[in-house]
Amino acid sequence: xxxxxxxxxxxxxxxxxxxxxxxxxxxxxxxxxxxxxxxxxxxxxxxxxxxxxxxxxxxxxxxxxxxxxxxxxxxxxxxxxxxxxxxxxxxxxxxxxxxxxxxxxxxxxxxxxxxxxxxxxxxxxxxxxxxxxxxxxxxxxxxxxxxxxxxxxxxxxxxxxxxxxxxxxxxxxxxxxxxxxxxxxxxxxxxxxxxxxxxxxxxxxxxxxxxxxxxxxxxxxxxxxxxxxxxxxxxxxxxxxxxxxxxxxxxxxxxxxxxxxxxxxxxxxxxxxxxxxxxxxxxxxxxxx
Amino acid sequence: xxxxxxxxxxxxxxxxxxxxxxxxxxxxxxxxxxxxxxxxxxxxxxxxxxxxxxxxxxxxxxxxxxxxxxxxxxxxxxxxxxxxxxxxxxxxxxxxxxxxxxxxxxxxxxxxxxxxxxxxxxxxxxxxxxxxxxxxxxxxxxxxxxxxxxxxxxxxx
Amino acid sequence: xxxxxxxxxxxxxxxxxxxxxxxxxxxxxxxxxxxxxxxxxxxxxxxxxxxxxxxxxxxxxxxxxxxxxxxxxxxxxxxxxxxxxxxxxxxxxxxxxxxxxxxxxxxxxxxxxxxxxxxxxxxxxxxxxxxxxxxxxxxxxxxxxxxxxxxxxxxxxxxxxxxxxxxxxxxxxxxxxxxxxxxxxxxxxxxxxxxxxxxxxxxxxxxxxxxxxxxxxxxxxxxxxxxxxxxxxxxxxxxxxxxxxxxxxxxxxxxxxxxxxxxxxxxxxxxxxxxxxxxxxxxxxxxxxxxxxxxxxxxxxxxxxxxxxxxxxxxxxxxxxxxxxxxxxxxxxxxxxxxxxxxxxxxxxxxxxxxxxxxxxxxxxxxxxxxxxxxxxxxxxxxxxxxxxxxxxxxxxxxxxxxxxxxxxxxxxxxxxxxxxxxxxxxxxxxxxxxxxxxxxxxxxxxxxxxxxxxxxxxxxxxxxxxxxxxxxxxxxxxxxxxxxxxxxxxxxxxxxxxxxxxxxxxxxxxxxxxxxxxxxxxxxxxxxxxxxxxxxxxxxxxxxxxxxxxxxxxxxxxxxxxxxxxxxxxxxxxxxxxxxxxxxxxxxxxxxxxxxxxxxxxxxxxxxxxxxxxxxxxxxxxxxxxxxxxxxxxxxxxxxxxxxxxxxxxxxxxxxxxxxxxxxxxxxxxxxxxxxxxxxxxxxxxxxxxxxxxxxxxxxxxxxxxxxxxxxxxxxxxxxxxxxxxxxxxxxxxxxxxxxxxxxxxxxxxxxxxxxxxxxxxxxxxxxxxxxxxxxxxxxxxx
Lengths: 289, 157, 784
Known about the structure:
The structure holds three protein chains of three kinds.
Chain A (H helix, E strand, L loop, with lengths): L4 E4 L3 H8 L6 E4 L5 H4 L9 E4 L9 E4 L2 E5 L4 H6 L1 H6 L1 H9 L3 H6 L2 H7 L7 H6 L3 E6 L2 E6 H4 E3 L2 E2 L6 E8 L6 E8 L7 E11 L5 E9 L9 H7 L6 H19 L5 H19 L7
Parallel strand pairs in A: 1-3, 2-3
Antiparallel strand pairs in A: 4-5, 5-10, 6-7, 6-10, 8-9, 11-12, 12-13
Chain B lengths: L1 E6 L2 E6 L6 H8 L18 E4 L2 E4 L12 E3 L13 H8 L9 H14 L5 H7 L11 H17 L1
Parallel strand pairs in B: 1-5
Antiparallel strand pairs in B: 1-2, 3-4, 3-5
Chain C lengths: L19 H5 L15 E7 L5 E7 L1 H4 L4 E5 L9 E2 L6 E2 L5 E2 L5 E7 L2 H10 L1 E6 L34 E5 L2 H7 L2 E9 L11 E6 L5 E4 L5 H12 L6 E4 L12 H17 L3 E4 L2 H7 L5 E10 L5 E11 L7 H11 L8 E9 L14 H19 L3 H8 L19 H12 L1 H9 L6 E13 L9 E8 L5 E5 L8 H13 L6 E3 L18 H27 L8 E3 L2 E3 L5 E2 L1 H10 L5 E7 L5 E2 L4 E2 L5 E13 L5 E11 L6 H20 L5 E2 L2 E2 L18 E6 L21 H13 L10 H6 L10 H7 L5
Helix pairs in contact in C: 5-6, 8-9, 9-17, 13-14, 14-15, 16-17
């Protein structure tokens, strides 16, 4: 007796129909890098997996005016190879490079990463940093949520049964802005993020920060933009001291959410350092990572 | 369910449960035991195959996902005369093989790399192997073997 | 016969591993690849409590599960399946008590792996928890929960081994007289072998009522002996064959013997082949590990850097069963002082029972643990005195002619000085040491550190140390070898082939070494302790030499001369008439003469005298020496350590199979690097938290730097062609070299392994409370 059934969708409509089938609890499957590990432990919470990895509309990467559009079934390798994303979303490309070895990158998708909603996800902080919107579709219609709203807690998402993330969009960063992603793991590859940081920013011709984004990951149950720190940075001249202050603030912001946990003594120091380093890199203060 | 795909150039049709992995399908239904289970969670790469031109951990591919695909396993890597190809021979010549359990996955990772990148640096080779764990060799001679193969293929052009 | 004045033709020359072809083509078959008609699948029911009495065990419900064919418990074995060496304290299936989480209680054979799991889960097993012991430093308290078996000698039942002592002079008095004394504590963690091939066995009943077991064990004869004993069969009805093994590193002994006995009994009951294969989770939960060790060292020295006294105490937390750890404790005691001269020493190492899994053999076998302690302490002494760490070691290290603190005079083959000076030169040590001592960066800092080591060869005083090999010429002129020692990736098959080729004077391509098989090989003791090249290699050399004498006899008869007049050119024989005669013709003639075209050879290690009570004598016949230097970059903001490069120079006597020797060097270093930085095992109330490779972290290709390796050859006269070994020594000094580099980079010493992010950044570890969940989930994995 198989534990679950399989169906392959070749279009979004077909996927939605399969996922909304009231007689067969179904979940979307793309790369399987999280799902197939989870099915190893205990009976699955679904009766069928609907393979969306080959739905063409979910596989595109394109620019539409000022908006970048990434299909939810785009793999990390495709993100790494995309000239468009390398130019417009460095932080996302760097995250894709660090998510795992080549075989994982060939299979894993942003849609899967977001839906899985792990606190240590590498794909989520860059998307949140870029203010990405997740586009959802179900039998009831479409709705859009910020990625930061899709993730409601560790391994918890706001998706309704039968709902599918079809693609993500985010506004192109302002001209001249840079972004970066840093990951801290216990080893250099195939590692769960102990902490990660996505940051973006721009310095005006006058030498002042006029654009700033900061999203740590694996620090709090949900990754969010640290808007207070972003605001603090606007109008300032980039300096080592400024970014150290931002790092310290980021650590305080983390503790405000989590309280002092078993890992806090380490994370408050390391997050401070990583944030400061990410900001120095974004604002070109030094290239050492 | 019936799953049809190409493996090592041959069209196959297998009737298998939908909830098994491609690794189980290859090993138990097609008797292609060259791909190994080392962890079953996509960490060790001993199960790696090339699927539609991309390196994949077959333990994380659901068997029905292979339908319509072209899969290459270690059994499909050889010279035209059936003997070892240049990469395999270099693995032998450069001492890259000890216990051998990781080797099929390493060779698939090497072939997949050279498909995308003809002249990788040693650092790039290491990156390409980052999802293949080896406990015996310390990786160095494996990198030597892949580097030598890249150079050899370049010369042959 | 002028053969020996020729340079070596095969030994030491570039050669290919004899079994590489089947491995690169995917044709090599490991145990999980074996499929046999009628084969059943076996699965164990394992304990989910760390210490409990088995109050009720009713396996019969398993037989009601569709597909289940048999179920066994300890009652199905002779004497409940009691086995173990040097201490018989374990059972093939638990009897009356369980003492660690993961201990096997019952085993089921069924048509499918899923049915076997369902059968195991249907067994009624009531466990009554007993107080458990997790702190080895409390193990010998009068009120400690009893984990070890009852004793009749009045000693604490939780004492697993004797106190292993090394004594010279009066260490307390000497220390009291030393101007400088360092008193330091160290902790080294459990380490999992993490062979990429999980455990598995295949047992097949024979028509004669016996059993054939395919098992990836290191030592087939020990398995055979255990099977015969616990199954109640004569040895000649028990055959053990070792298939290709996907890595072992010391880890595929006990766990394989138990699985073999379980599968064998199920096979005998059902009359069908039975295969048992572990998932990675089951492997991590149930298999034995390297012990964790708690150490305290007091090192006394003069201001000029002369080491004078070493006082050392070590407790091995070696878990619920003895396995090999009494021997680990002994080797640890011998090496605890490091490769230095002392005026006095006082070493006392022992192991205790706890309910933290259990520990057994792992590459290095006590030396990696103590080397981490002594090499950091010596290094700290150098810092204190303002002396260069290599200079301090050169001042004190063992040299030819020295007497060790054990009382052994080192008469030959001591290459440590050359290892240190060569590593110094290769790594550009002096310039980097100076440069890194001047840095003051806030973000990243570099450091370079050294560690020296020595490693006693083979079993030493652990027991009888000999091996046997056989060689035969088949009718098609191919040559067949057997050895009682095995190859699990280590390369011994190739080493023996090269040795036999060299001695016999034929191309290695003629020679084929058989799979280890108790039917055809001769018991040579365990394949452990890096003894295969020396002990097994000498035996193979003796066998080949014996056979060559036979052929020389035939050649001298055919060529009508004395054997001394024969010359070999390639494979051919040439007599006084200067006509080359092919090897095949000589073989034919030998057959015609009625000579036997096979031989066996045995070699016994020189006698070892070790006075266990006084801690003095000659612990090992000889030692391998080495020095490793690590260059690191420490991220001062996160505690992340990158090893930028490693240099390793080891004195291995003579390199027989260069490619293989370098492979063992790089591989051992890589395990040492993981031991140093990332491999951590957390037992929480006896439950392991790391149950697969996403949480048990071994180094990937991008964690290991380029390694510069070199061998120094200070020949050992008893070794084949002067050879010693490299398999274990390569792992021993890597962690302390990295620790010493981190100390230079950060100014801080980390005295606990692994040196993870938290320890490097904060100076101490942080761990969550942990839970039973990883174990419970891991043992319930339904095979797909």
